Structures are given as structure tokens and as C-alpha cells.
UniProtKB/TrEMBL annotation:
Protein's name in the database: Monosaccharide ABC transporter substrate-binding protein, CUT2 family
Chief localisation class: other
Location in the cell: Cell envelope
SUPFAM superfamilies in the cross-refs: Periplasmic binding protein-like I
Span of the signal peptide: 1-18
Biological source species: Mycolicibacterium rutilum (Mycobacterium rutilum)
InterPro entries: Peripla_BP_I, SBP_2_dom
Keyword Signal found: yes
Single Gene Ontology MF annotation: carbohydrate binding
Domain of life, source organism: Bacteria
Homology family: Belongs to the bacterial solute-binding protein 2 family.
Gene Ontology cellular component annotations, sorted alphabetically: cell envelope
Sequence ranges assigned to domain Periplasmic binding protein in this UniProt record: 41-299
Entry keywords, A to Z: Signal
Amino acid sequence: MNRVLTAMLGIATAGVLAACGSGPAGQSGDAAGGEQITMGFSQVGAESGWRTANTTSIQDAAKEAGVDLKFSDANGKQENQISAIRSFIQQRVDVIAFSPVVRTGWDAVLLEAKNAGIPVILTDRAVDTSEPDVYKTFIGADFVQEGQWAGDWVVKEFAAAPGPVNIVQLEGTTGSDPALERTSGFAKAIGVNPNLKVIASQTGDFTRSGGKQVMEAFLKAHPDIDVVFAQNDDMGLGAVEAIEAAGKKPGTDIKIVAIDATHDGMQATADGKFNFLVECNPLLGPQLMDIAKKVVAGESVPNRIVTPDQTFDQAQAAAALPERKY
Ligand code: AHR
């Protein structure tokens, strides 16, 4: 798997996400010999608060860095991303960046970009590919670690539980990198305590409505749920609505651990409706622009750049909320 290879070979940098722009607003990019660079960017869609913050970060950072950004929203569909990338190739952009909806099925279009001599940067999510050198780098979080942190919290919280602890999992988009990796990190973490059981797991597609719908079905099928692991804030917030509608108290009757730590998730945690939050920082724009300029200028870049995250309990969320940027 290229992801594994990449992780093994890559240099993990825990660099600060901000402060990577290279010039004042409106000024041409400078890393490619003084010429302004053109970037084609294909975004997953607008499924979550995280995604909206990520899109804003990329658009703002492009302006700040003087990068001419051609932005395309795939509306959650891989075929739209492939069409957008082909269109970027036809337009002869300097660099293509994208956050892949799912992990597989990219070989052909990545080879087309490579054959056209246009470098590709993966941002936020990885792909599986057997083709060598079809992208320059992958900038994004360690999703396995995020799932592990969520699971570690459950392990600690229920360390003294005398019997089975019933967990339901709201998975992200089927086949997407974060859904696959968070599922595996969480399973690994809770595996240390045989009392912890995932009794149901289903995709809510990273949306609030999806999380609510799946949670309603879980509540009907399983009257004895102890914990919800929501693979993003939006699904967790949908679960809160479903739990309240069922006459139970989220955060008390049913504990909730989620991933993202967007403003809404932090508010739910500070309010006692979520119990624990794992961050996934969406502010990738400045770092993406910086790396893109280097790639276009022919400079070498690490082939894996891991963005740093942290975790929040309820008191930490309440304290951090006033300064939260997304
Ligand atoms: O790829 C990052 C994930 O995608 C975020 O956790 C989720 O909110 C988003 O939709």
C-alpha cells in the first residue's frame, strides 16, 4: 500500500499550520521564479463544518499567497473529482491539489497528470495507488491516531465497568481515508478491554442528517447503548438530536466521543452533550500554498506531512472555545 510506504518513508513534520504564506495579499507568488502560480483544487464537497472551514482556509490562503486558485466542489462524488482534475490538466495549471472523496480508483487520472508533467499534492486525505511518483506529498492529519485517542478515552472512562459496555459507531463516508483509519485506530485502542463492544456500526456519511438518521435506528434496535463514537462532529451533533428526541440525555445517559473539534463540537462538549473531542485541524490552506510553491519551483518536499492535533475534555473545551478559529 502506497499509504504505508509513504508513512514509512515520509518525514513527519509537526509544523505550525499558520505562518506559511509567502507574500502580502494580491502579490504574485515568488517561489516559481517570480511568476504567479495557478493551482487547480478539487474539494470533496460541503458535507460538514470541518469541510467548510477547510475550504475557507484554502481560499483565503491562496489570496494571501498570491496563488491563482481554480476551485471545484465535487459534491461528494469521485467522478466529479476525476472530471475536475482532467479539466485542470487541460487548462495546464501549474499544480493540482485535491482531497480525495475515497481512497481507491485514482491511478488513471494520477498517471494522466504525471504524464502531462503537472505535480499533484494530496491534502487532508490519502489515496491507495500502486503507481509510483504520482503525487509529490500528502499533507494531513494522522487519522489512525485520532481514532486511537477516541478509543483511549473510552478505555479510561469505562476502566472500572463491571460488565459489557455497548458502543455504537457512526462511520464517515464509506471507503474514505478518515473512515477507514479512524475505525481501525478506535478498534485497536478499545481492543485492550474485552468489556468494550462495538454492537453496531454504520455510515452517516460525515453529515448531521446522516448521523441523526443512523442514531435513530440504533436507538430503536438497541435500548442499552452506553457510548457513541462519532467519526466527526456533525454526525455526533445529529446523534445528540436523536438521543434527545428519544427522551435521553446525551453526555449523561449516553456518552459521546467525536472527532474534529469544530466550534459546534466544542460548544456541545462545553455544554456537557459531548464528553470528549479529538481535534482534526482543517486549517491546511497556508501550508498547502507554501508546499505548492516549492513543488512548482522544483524544490524537494517531504512526501508525508503530518499536521498536529490535540484532544479536549469538557473543561478544556469550555476554556478553548472563546479563541476557537473554526
Ligand atoms: O477528511 C476529514 C473529515 O472529512 C472530517 O473529519 C469530516 O468532518 C469531513 O467531512
